[in-house]
Design a protein that fits this description.
18% strand; six-stranded parallel sheet; Rossmann fold; binds beta-D-fucofuranose; 44% helix; alpha/beta; elongated
């Protein structure tokens, strides 16, 4: 009898300890937590591009595979929607909030609310420009300045033998978004070394195919002699291709096209000779995000900045890589 009582007390104590751990997970405190006890709120940018679609699919499937509950919201490229989603995750007392900030600025207030509630925040894909880096535990994503530099490096090399002026149209991503700011910065830094390169027009196409098409249509009218289009993502480049063809020109020949991402449609256009060079930006962040979340909930240290590894593709390399491309 005594023995049974003792065992019951021990089991009770164990149960208490276990539920205690699960409840404390919201504060990111120490102790093992089963995946099914973890709840993550993810505030996505939208569904503006092939990259974004692949990113959403990868994150959803990685959390499903890990058995972790993922609450998901789509902000339709509006910061106010993302702020609302984050506030609702705070209210629901999720264990971790992850989000990909539409634009860089304006996050301090809501991130302080998360901090006050003891909910750790992980930035995925895009950065915030806050000077207070205690507002997030980790930032997982690409180095967009490096991507811009790779685009610039290829261009410099490609036009190395010519001393003629090289007129460039830049199709920018969403105004104020980290990848738009940084891809412009890295590119500008490289091409400024030779004054034959001139960006004759630079406008946002909001990372969408329709945006890229519309902006290119208008800019081709004022700059019919343009040599190069540098698009901050594949989708805008694909829109530009439509506009160039509609204007009776041959994309990839009359106008050299450089894009960023390397999603399937972009890679196909590169293999078909309509795009000339693509800088890869990987959307496959799901597994790494699960890993960060699991560590944060367990109270383990995580790296403040995790940079995605990526490469570049020429037309020949695209032909080779296409059959195995996951996204
Ligand atoms: O390049 C673009 C998407 O933030 C890296 O957002 C991402 C960018 C990506 O819309 O296609």
């Amino acid at each position: 009898m005594k023995k049974t009582l003792g065992a019951a007390v021990a089991i009770g104590a164990l149960l208490l300890a276990l539920t205690g751990c699960a409840q404390e997970a919201g504060g990111g405190s120490e102790g093992p937590t089963a995946p099914e006890d973890i709840v993550v709120g993810f505030a996505q940018v939208g569904a503006e591009s092939g990259w974004r679609t692949a990113n959403t699919a990868d994150i959803q499937s990685a959390f499903k595979d890990a058995g972790i509950e993922l609450k998901f919201s789509d902000a339709q490229q509006k910061q106010e929607n993302q702020i609302k989603a984050i506030r609702s995750y705070i209210q629901q007392d999720v264990d971790v909030i992850a989000f990909s900030p539409v634009i860089e600025s304006g996050w301090d207030a809501v991130l302080n609310e998360a901090k006050d509630a003891g909910i750790p925040v992980v930035l995925t894909d895009r950065a915030v420009d806050s000077t207070d880096d205690s507002l997030y535990v980790s930032f997982l994503g690409s180095d967009f300045i490096e991507e811009g530099k790779k685009a610039g490096d290829w261009l410099v090399e490609e036009f190395a033998d010519s001393s003629d002026p090289v007129k460039i149209i830049q199709l920018e991503g969403t105004t104020g978004a980290a990848p738009a700011l940084d891809r412009a910065e890295g590119f500008a830094e490289v091409i400024k070394a030779d004054e034959k390169f001139e960006v004759v027009a630079s406008q946002t196409g909001d990372f969408t195919r329709a945006g890229g098409k519309q902006v290119t249509e208008a800019l081709l009218k004022s700059n019919p002699d343009v040599d190069v289009i540098y698009a901050h993502n594949d989708d805008m480049g694909l829109g530009a291709i439509e506009a160039i063809e509609a204007a009776g020109m041959t994309p990839g020949e009359d106008i050299t096209i450089i894009t960023v991402d390397a999603v399937k449609d972009g890679m196909q256009a590169l293999a078909d000779g309509k795009i000339n060079f693509i800088v890869e930006c990987s959307p496959l962040l799901g597994k790494q995000l699960v890993d960060i979340v699991t560590k944060v909930v367990a109270g383990e240290e995580v790296e403040k900045r995790i940079i995605t590894e990526e490469t570049t593709f020429t037309q020949e390399q695209a032909v080779e890589a296409l059959p195995d491309r996951q996204y």
